[in-house]
Structure prediction request, 489 residues.
Amino acid sequence: MKKYFALFLLLPLLVLAQSQGVLTRFSPANGILVGTRNSPTTTAATSADVRALWSGTCNSSSFLRGDGSCQSISTTSAANPTASVGLSAVNGVASTYMRSDAAPVLSQAIVPTWTGVHTFDAVPAFNGGASGVTAPFSVDSTFVVSSLNADLLDGNSSSAFATASHNHAASDVNSGTFTVARGGTGVATLTGIAKGNGTSAFTAATSSDVIGLWTGTCNSSTYLRADGSCVASTGPSPGNSVNQVALGSSAGVSTDYMRADAQLALNQAILPTWTGQHTFNAIPIFNGGTSGSTAPFTVDSTFVVTNLNADTVDGQSASAFAAASHAHSAADVTSGTLAVARGGTGTTTSTGTGNVVLSASPTFTGTVAMAAATVGGSNVCRADGTNCPAASGPRHAYGYIAADGSGCSLFSSYANAGIASCTRTGTGAYSVNFSPAFSNVPLCVYSPTSDSTLIPTLNTGSTSLNSVVVKNTSGTATDGSFSIQCLGT
Prediction:
């Protein structure tokens, strides 16, 4: 009964809620809500509602601290970064802060051990090593680096190696012996008929190896027939060989036959003319000649035999001859006369005629023609007095220089007096040229000709040129005429 009464009391509330759509106890549905003691409904919270949860003074000069209190904001100023990025963290002590768009520099002296994979889109340069002394970098793995194309291998370029697929000439195999498995014989030397032994090395075949190729019973009572079988003799009986191998053939009349293992003797008295080339692997001995009387063999060609090294030539050993390149002492020239064309006199006496060397005091007859010549750097006088060397004694040069402020000239009355020309190079400055040039720098004296207040002075001098500066008594360079006299060699 009580249950029905309570339901009866709630029924109006349910009808009211149905008419309003929702219960208005919690509103709005989004955001932080705040309720009040005197109202059944909530409202949207403001920042003031949140700040009220913190103790202390909460205003524009404070901040909400994690312990639930408002604290004043410290006045820290901004500054540029001063530390660098390294491998270890460092707790700072500065009272300034770094701006959000600032970037500290990365220390390039770090020695990191990277645990992650680095990818270089640009080409890295490894400059740490010293060329020819140390490596530019090191690795701790012997695994192949895929796609790495090195310039050198152990200091050698690819041209120092053969490619993986290559061939060799037989001459390149200069040691070892090819086995049977590799197509060889398995031995270094082999004489006679070779006999294969399966995978073992070849050996020299014996007569039994050859006889073994025939079928049937092969012994002293049978012979090897051409059809590959051994058959008993049904004809003549065997006999010993009585003839020798000679140059001509012999039909023979004997009814005996020669056994297959018999050998004919070679007639050593034969005189063959061989048409084929004979190769002697052993050293031949020629004993046919008589020492000092006849030759041991003859040849019909004068061509040089390559590599033939004779002990003597015409009975003389090499010590009896001079080398192709050799010298002689003058004492070795014991006959003949050395021609002028070979640096000699062309005569055996101290006087002579024509193109020969004469005595120290020759007597000339007729007309002697001499071309211009020098001896020891000095000219030699011709018979007509020309080509003579210049006098070696002192030489005098003099002249009168006229200057008008724009140039200078040599008075014509002094032409050919050892001075060739005069050139004005500036105010009061002149270059006097000598012709011919002196062998040594001459001694020159200068004096004014019309104005006693002018003083010519020598600046520099050479064997072909003297520089003169004319000054007044105040020391100022001034144009003016002057005379010059020089003495030298």
About this structure: The CA atoms of residues 191 and 231 lie 30 Å apart.
